[in-house]
Fold this sequence. Notes:
The structure holds two protein chains of two kinds.
Chain A lengths: L5 E5 L3 H13 L3 E5 L2 H11 L3 E5 L7 H9 L6 E5 L4 H9 L4 E4 L4 H12 L8 E4 L2 E4 L4 E4 L2 E3 L3 H12 L5 E2 H9 L8 H14 L9 E4 L3 E4 L3
Chain B lengths: L1 H18 L1 H61 L4 H18 L4 E6 L12 E2 L10 H9 L5 E8 L12 E13 L3 E10 L1 H51 L14 H57 L6 H31 L8 E4 H19 L3 E4 L6 E4 L1 H18 L5 E7 L3 E8 L6 H6 L21 H11 L3 E7 L3 E9 L25 H15 L1
Parallel strand pairs in B: 7-9
Antiparallel strand pairs in B: 1-2, 1-5, 3-4, 4-5, 6-8, 9-10, 10-12, 11-12
Helix pairs in contact in B: 2-3, 2-5, 5-6, 6-7, 7-11, 8-9, 9-11
Amino acid sequence: MNQTARILVVDDDPALAEMIGIVLRGEGFEPSFCADGALALDAFRSVDPDLVLLDLMLPGLDGIQVCEAIRSESGTPVIMLTAKGDTADVVRGLESGADDYVVKPFNPKELVARIRTRLRPASSSVTRIEVGDLVLDVAGHEVRRGDAIIGLTPLEFDLLLALAEKPEQVFTREMLLEQVWGYHYKADTRLVNVHVQRLRAKVELDPDNPRIVTTVRGVGYRAGGA
Amino acid sequence: MPWLSWRLALRRARRIWRRSLQLRTIALTVVLSSVAIGIIGGTMAMSIGGQLYETRRSQILAEAARAVLQGQSVLDEAATTVGEGPDGLNVLQNSLLPSIGSASTAQDIAILRAPDPETTTTLQDTTTSDFPQQLVSEDLREAVRTDTGQLSLQPVRLELQDGSTLEPAEGTVPGLIVGASLQVPTAGQYELYLVYDLGETQRTLDFLLQILFVGSIALIALIGGVVYVVTRTVVGPVREAARTSEKLAAGELEERLPERGEDVLSTLARSFNRMADSLQSQITQLADLSRVQQRFVSDVSHELRTPLTTIRLAGDVLYDQREDYPPATARTAELLKTQIERFELLLADLLEISRFDARAVELETEPTNLANLTEESIETVQPLADGVGSELRLVAPGGHMDVEVDGRRIRRILRNLLGNAIEHGEGRPIVVTVDSNQTAVAIAVRDYGIGMTSEQMGRVFDRFWRADPSRRRSIGGTGLGLAISLEDANLHDGRLDVWSEPGIGSCFRLTLPRDRRVPIRLSPVELPPAEVLDELLPVDQRDERMGGAGDARR
């Protein structure tokens, strides 16, 4: 990934947006800004960013609605900036398609680490993996069932890839947090739960009776049948 | 077990008795009116019976007197017409009984010869066919013989005659024998006995008593019914008031009593409703105030976060470049950074406390191995312990099974307890014990540091309270840590206890239920803690501790 990745910052607080801009420029990113939820989607289309930093509380549309709008046309990584550590808001944000979230107040290193993890392409030693009736084209970032391409976000692809590379291994939520989200300390396991649900909704023929990503009760998840 | 069920029924009856004012009122009224009606009825029955008997008796006496007169006149007449001699007497004898019988309603008649008559001419004993001679007592005969010209009475019980009776169940009916003496010309003194049946009178009396009895029962039942209806109209509203107050107490503040009419009960209902109105408005007002206050705290915390984030980013940017600044400015950047962090922790804790106060917290439980979780927590604070030279020891005889807990909150509690132990542990070892029993899992953090007085111990969970304000803090902390830990423990239906002795150390014990539906019976870890691991103490502490341990167990 080149160092001039474009990042769209959607935040209505000008001081914070500017400060984030200073931090991002200092790290070699190229920030652009939008202060209104209602204008965010237009800004997203015109900037075509590599990643979106999205405040949860916005005038116009709120962050969750903006996230849903972005998700409806793109898998571009979205990181929520939330002033609320409240359970319901975080889960709603994740369910609307955000890849990750950062709780205010955050420090610059934490923010940059989260951004870098999401911009880093998943590396794999293989180019093609089969899991169940799905085929993962690692180089092309594509998943197919037969001839049909299943559209996954980069995060969902990384999650599926992590599981599919070692089908014999059961992954705990903590292992997935480290491998897919880049957390090296205890983080919010709801990230895993929500994204596994979103992934299943796309890849499973029957999401209520999953065959691709199966749950191992009390431990975590694994690829393929139990 | 019939004995048991009988006792159970008795207990239930007693409870109903105690609980139902209506039942007690009805029972009392019925019992008292039964006694009254019983006394009245008994008196009535006795006087009616006596009156009936008296009437019948005087009727019988009058009749008997007529019969005796008739008999005597027959005899006197016979003396002039029939003449003397056995034949004449026989004829007389045959006509005498029918003649007397026609003059009276007596059931049986007998004419008996008095013992040792002085005359030789005798009249045979003449009786009607069923005359119960054995019933005529010697006393009666004696009375008849001595009181000539008088009527003598004897009450008897008569054998019933076959088929002629209405009361087959009883073998006898009351009767009366009337005796009188007759003078038979030439044959001397004879005794006339007339047997009267009182069965008819008895039947009348029985019938009257029956009517009286049935009437009394009906009256008592009626009184019971009336009392039931009356008490219902009184007890009903009272009961409703009780039900309504229960609902009010349970928080259904909209509940009111119906107000009908102008009587005492409706006055009760009205004043009750006024009380409820006033309660409701005050509670609503308080709840609003509390909501506003909590909302305010929460809003302030949230509003502070955005500028704080900007400040933090700015502070970190400056801090990262501090080497380029003159020393005073560089130090300023360092102070700025550390104080922003402290401010941040404080804000986070404030926000957490405001969530607890607003009851806006939820447990997110998952099966967790508390022994492993404790080990992890110890690892995360290991650098801090190394910094002050405290050794962290884990003793985990139990707690290796999965328990449904909110791992984030338990970790936060442990971080707090361990941080406190390290801060106040004077560099001595810290022992963490994890154990479990049937109902609970406990984690105890024991330090051998400065300890606390009992007064300090009582305040240790207070918000913003610090054991020793002058003491230099190496780790920091907001003063809300233990308050939040206590809330977290309570949220799990668990307990957070403390034991401490000045100069000996402190022990904080977290006890969590294995199953939240089953209450904790006993914590698996003792408090005050069992003195373990003597070798953990510095040599110069051991003797001192021996004395102290005794104190602690006093």
